[in-house]
Design a protein that fits this description.
Blueprint lengths: L36 E3 L6 E3 H19 L2
Antiparallel strand pairs: 1-2
Bound molecules: zinc ion.
Zinc ion (ZN) binds next to loops.
Amino acid sequence: MYGKNFVTVDSRNTTRTCHACGHIMSGKEKLTLKDREWICPKCVIHHIRDVNAAKNILARVKSKLVSMH
Ligand SMILES: [Zn+2]
């Protein structure tokens, strides 16, 4: 699909990082496997965990592709 432009991205923290403001849930805010949905305390956006993670990964792929040029 991406041909020679295959890139690998670091997927660490993609689940617990708010894709809207970049806030990372840690300490008491840290998400558990039970938290399928959560609300960012900083920008108060409602997240569905897997959707938020996917958006973070996509954003990392895009920024990586840009930095390759
Ligand atoms: Zn946020």
